[in-house]
Amino acid sequence: MSKLITLQEFILKNEADYSFATGELSRLLSDIAVASKIVSRDIRKAGLVDHIIGAQGGQNIQGEEQQKLDVIADITFIKAFEQGGEVCGIASEENENFVAFKSEKSKNGKYVVLFDPLDGSSNIDVNVSIGTIFSIYKRLSPIGNEATIEDMLQPGTEQIVAGYVLYGSSTMLVYTTGNGVNGFTLDPSIGEFCLSHPDMKMPEIGRLYAMNEGNIFECEKGLSDYIKYCQSRENQTGMPYSGRYIGSLVADFHRNLIKGGIYIYPDVLSAPEGKLRLLYECNPLAFIAEQAGGLASTGRKRILDIKPERLHQRVPYYVGSKLMVEKVMQFIEATENK
Ligand code: AHM
Ligand code: MG
């Protein structure tokens, strides 16, 4: 049997591969791993314990109903970042404003973390996979001060780490430091994430497309033409693709990362800028996609190049296998040039 490599061992062994190597960054990754184990444990109790399942009774900044677990996950991660001391501030999908930590230790932290504590949370009550998504940036403001909005509004190209945790049939943590993508599965018997998917590569093309097709009459013609193409034998594989939409971005993305495919959330009449948030959802998964050989686009331009203007900015999102994202961009361009 080959030796089990724990996340902890892997982080330490690969510290020198980071774009800039620091022990703090390794500790921060470990903090994320610990917080996600806590959240994973809480999720596994959903349905059993009354205070975990169901709506919280409030709305988040996007006007969406907050689930209890959204709030629990948000608090768990924020606490981990605040206590760890490597992070000077955070921004989260669940909070209107970013949080600048006040302690001296945190003010000396070199990093900011932007995250979606629990994505796809409408799936909690029906026992379907959900996830956490995170991005780490080096702060721009001077060390010793409080974090600023400029620290948060950096383009995706500046990410130094991005990752996600998928709470699925097993709990997995997948991340990149800009040197490829590695996946770790939580072994519940020892409470450790263990390397299970080394050097993940997204197939150049797949036969899966993921989109909420209930929106098909609300989206632009180039995209509806592309969906017809996916369903025909005229596509790049000569066989109709399969539609697979979980409605949990992390789960849809993870499946496509392994099997090859495309995930689409376009701008639609009900969400004219798209639904997904650039900073908490699109950028981290775009960084991972590119590191695995895939692509992420608004349909017109590269996600990672966008200079964010607002914390909760939304964008149309096309992410997945390289040839599939390129193809849908060609369809969009073709209808624009008519
Ligand atoms: P959330 O962050 O509020 O959970 O919303 C994001 C989720 C994605 O995980 C998922 O792909 C999408 O919203 C589903 O939206 P829809 O129900 O409109 O298809
Ligand atoms: Mg989300």
Total strands: the figure is 15
Total domain count: 2
The CATH H-level superfamily of the largest domain is Fructose-1,6-Bisphosphatase, subunit A, domain 1
**The CATH class of the largest domain:** Alpha Beta
The main pleated sheet reads as: 8 strands, mixed
Query: What is the CATH-assigned architecture of the largest domain?
Result: 2-Layer Sandwich
The portion of residues assigned to helices is 25-40%
What class would the helix/strand composition place it in? alpha+beta
The ordered H/E elements are: HHEEHEEHEEHEEEEEHEHEHEEH
Ligands and ions found = 2,5-anhydro-1,6-di-O-phosphono-D-mannitol, magnesium ion
Number of helical elements = 9
The name of the CATH topology of the largest domain is: Fructose-1,6-Bisphosphatase, Chain A, domain 1
Radius of gyration: 19 Å
Strand coverage percent: 15-25%
Dominant shape = globular
Give me the side-by-side strand order of the main sheet.
4-3-5-6-7-8-9-10
Q: What is the CA–CA distance across the termini?
A: 60 Å
Average pLDDT confidence is 92
Low-confidence stretches: none
